[in-house]
Specification:
The protein is an all-beta fold and about 425 residues long. It contains two helices and 31 strands. Strands 27-28-29-2-1-30 form a six-stranded antiparallel β-sheet, with no helix packed on it. It has a five-stranded mixed β-sheet with strand order 3-4-5-6-31, with no helix packed on it. It has a four-stranded antiparallel β-sheet with strand order 7-8-9-10, with no helix packed on it. The longest helix has 6 residues, at about 320-325.
Length: about 425
């Protein structure tokens, strides 16, 4: 459904019966494929907590899924094929094998795994492990360092990591060291001791870091704010704050740009080369109800692809559930594709209701994850709280193309996909 500002309630819909089955979203006409069920994953299935961490490989043929549960493999890899859609579980790894898995943005056979303060490149075709970098010399102490690895999304040249020395505390929200490694020259090219570089913020460490797509900018995020931009090659530190019209929130990264949600309906575009005093450009005013912004929802975004498209997964927080159900608004609990042209959103395409309802667990959002080639979007959903969370998949057409909503079916439209 292209550029349609209407309000569409969720039509009751039974989930696909099992892994390998599918249903057609009765509102938006998109076929939703179910990837997992208890026979495929006995434990709980998860996608990456942050939608900016790509768990599809470079050519969109493999997807990482995490599984939690005592004695069960912690990581699984699925091969995904087209015409017809087919899914094959091809690898399982123990939960201690790694943390923070991320695919190389160019090589579809290479995945990076984090073990302590080291980043290891793993090649699926041969099973070969190669040490990429050991950050220990520039990250002293023994505090937490998992799940912090970031890499640029152009050629995989730059890799960043952060760690807690233990001087502040030892877990997440305690990170006080950051380093950047240049794989092309084979050395660490920038380091930052956060309390020294930012002495005005005391008593807490970083919550985490992010890269823009180019790897030129590192976003240093404190729990509860502020967010600090670090242009590591020049040493520039820019406090973007954590207020409405500045950098903050769950954002969409591009090449030297960031799109930031400032309320329930709008996105702001910012050129990261410019100082924070630069007035942001309003890039997208989402459809509103009675002229009011949607304050019931939060949003997570994938990275912006070279063609300008990116995915938004909007969700209602548990605290706002009762309000939302009485006052349904446009784009609510939907997977939406936005397409960026310059600093403006040229179109938006409403794909489906994701049907994940926040029950107070983590993550509360659908964790929508898009393949770099733009063919697939996967997410997790408890299907309107009717079952445990499972992984679902949709196949996309070209950005900006429309789908014609079908007549709501009398019963779910069950289809089969090849499953092994």
């Amino acid at each position: 459904m292209l550029n349609d500002p209407g309000i569409y309630l969720k039509t009751p819909l039974a989930p696909p019966l099992a892994a390998g089955a599918s249903v057609v979203d009765p509102t938006f006409g998109t076929t939703i494929y179910r990837l997992t069920d208890p026979s495929v994953l006995p434990g709980q299935a998860h996608l990456a907590d942050r939608s900016t961490v790509r768990w599809f490989n470079a050519d969109g043929t493999r997807l990482i899924v995490r599984q939690t549960g005592a004695g069960l493999p912690g990581w699984l890899v699925f091969a995904i094929g087209d015409a017809p859609v087919r899914v094959t579980k091809i690898a399982e790894f123990s939960g201690t094998w790694a943390s923070g898995l991320q695919w190389d943005p160019v090589d579809p056979d290479r995945v990076y795994r984090t073990v302590g303060r080291t980043i290891i490149a793993y090649r699926f075709s041969t099973g070969q492990n190669t040490l990429l970098i050991n950050f220990t010399p520039v990250m002293p102490g023994t505090g937490y360092a998992s799940l912090t690895h970031q890499l640029d999304q152009q050629i995989g040249r730059y890799h960043a990591n952060c760690a807690a020395s233990g001087a502040i505390c030892t877990g997440q929200d305690c990170y006080d060291y950051v380093g950047v490694f240049d794989a092309q020259v084979g050395q660490i090219v920038a380091t930052l001791h956060v309390p020294t570089a930012i002495p005005t913020i005391t008593g807490k460490g970083l919550h985490g870091i992010d890269f823009d797509n180019s790897g030129r900018y590192v976003m240093l995020t404190y729990p509860g704010g502020p967010n600090i931009l670090w242009e590591w090659a020049t040493g520039r530190l820019d406090n973007f704050g954590y207020v409405g019209q500045r950098f903050g929130g769950h954002h969409a990264f591009g090449d030297g740009i960031v799109l930031n949600p400032v309320n329930g309906s709008d996105l702001l575009w910012r050129d990261l080369a410019l100082p924070s005093s630069q007035t942001p450009v309003l890039t997208f005013s989402a459809p509103k109800k009675n002229g009011k912004a949607d304050w019931y929802e939060d949003k997570h975004f994938t990275r912006v692809r070279p063609d300008g498209s990116f995915i938004m997964g909007s969700y209602v927080t548990k605290a706002n559930r009762a309000y939302a159900d009485q006052d349904w608004r446009p784009l609510m609990e939907e997977i939406v594709e936005l397409t960026l042209a310059g600093n403006l959103v040229s179109s938006y395409r409403r794909l489906c209701h994701h049907r994940n309802m926040d029950t107070g667990g983590w993550p509360p959002h659908p964790a929508a994850n898009a393949s770099p080639d733009g063919r697939w979007v996967a997410w997790q959903s408890n299907w309107d709280r009717t079952q445990r969370a499972e992984i679902y998949l949709i196949r996309l057409g070209a950005p900006g193309t429309d789908t014609t909503p079908p007549t709501p079916p009398l019963s779910p439209l069950i289809q089969s996909i090849q499953w092994t």
